[in-house]
Amino acid sequence: MKLKRQIIMVLCSVLGICTVQGQSLDLKLSKKFIQQNLNDAALQIKVLANATPNGKFPKTFENNKEIFSSSSWWCSGFYPGTLWYLYEGTQDQGLLQNVEEKLPYLEKEKYNKGTHDLGFMLFCSFGNGLRLTGDSAKYKDVLVTGAASLASRFNERTKTIRSWDHKPWHYPVIIDNMMNLEFLTQVSKMTGNKKYYDLAIKHAETTLKNHFRKDYSSYHVIDYDVNSGKVIGKKTHQGAYDESAWSRGQGWALYGYTMMYRETKKKEFLNQARHIAKYILNHPNMPHDLIPYWDFDKDKIDQSSKMYAKKDLRDVSAATLYASALLELAQYTKGKESALYLSNAETMLTNLSKEPYKAVYGTNGGYLLKHSVGALPLNSEIDVPLTYADYYYVEALVRYKRLLDGEPMIKEIAK
């Protein structure tokens, strides 16, 4: 069996042909290309590591200045998660030391019941730590306690996990919240507590019903009446306008439903992911290099809007989400459809790995990628590096490396 596996790995590496889920994937990117970009990222992130104070977490690099956050910021888990992935991809022991020094400052967020982002914060960090080290004593309690905190935000009337607690919203649920469901399903598998698994399915089913338009584009925010559970508003917070297709939001949706199919094997989730992928890849405003504009409907912005002058900005963070999700979706589909997802992911990774998107070593504050957009309507994080763009870029590289090595592309935390 071991010899057979070694032969398969050699064939994958030499021929670029890998069998996944009973089908052959024709891999176009070379092992040298993937490894070089992982090695480059490992060197670059050490620049960021050296600049990051104890107890703080990287946020962005703007106006030639490093900007950090506390552990309670929604993105605090992405930097440790990126370190874990780069350690996995390079076996650089210095990265292991960097991440182990950072995690103690994040652990207290397992008690945080004021945010829906605990999947981003804890699963990307402590989850990858458990997966790579197998150290249950060190990481499992953080995940189990954090999952209970996240589940406390579920409401039986709306059948969703509440996203924000602030006004003017009544009971807002954002499409981003799909990403935190993996945290619940994996902890269910680890503990045998089916409650979390069931909550995740209910949230995904309700989101599928209420968040999408007929063309399968997603609204950013759905506001519910907490007493009746009925939808009372369909809005945006970071997109161009309420009816626009905010690019990163489409990425949260694509990744979320692809992942939820993996976790549940429910065909409606797979079909939703396929429809979302078709919407993204066939959109007339998708640029040739497949690095999307920050909003697919940016051409409909009124010329009098303050956003108009910057309407053509790209959002690299959306592209990294697309690339990682499409690599996985290629496994669950067949023939030309699967090949389409794979080839588009490869194009995205190729273009992200060079100028103008990939940063030169020592520049960009130590972040790997340039040209992301946080929230243009809020005049926040405009055309800057963002920590989650780096995370999903490295995740996609590692996923591709596994395919080249003849390994399972998805390696779950739960055993």
Automatic annotation (TrEMBL):
Q: What's the source species' lineage?
A: Bacteria, Pseudomonadati, Bacteroidota, Sphingobacteriia, Sphingobacteriales
Gene3D superfamilies for the chain: 1.50.10.10
Keyword set for this entry?
Answer: Hydrolase
| InterPro entries assigned to the protein according to its UniProt record, in alphabetical order | 6-hairpin_glycosidase_sf (IPR008928), 6hp_glycosidase-like_sf (IPR012341), Glyco_hydro_88 (IPR010905), UG_Glycosaminoglycan_Hydrolase (IPR052369)
Q: Which organism is it from?
A: Sphingobacterium anhuiense
The text of the family note is: Belongs to the glycosyl hydrolase 88 family.
Keyword check for Hydrolase, yes or no. yes
Entries under PANTHER family matching the protein: HYDROLASE, PUTATIVE (AFU_ORTHOLOGUE AFUA_7G05090)-RELATED (PTHR36845)
UniProt-recorded name of the protein: Glycoside hydrolase family 88 protein
The family database entries (SUPFAM superfamilies) matched by this protein are listed as: Six-hairpin glycosidases
Name the Gene Ontology molecular function terms of this record.
hydrolase activity
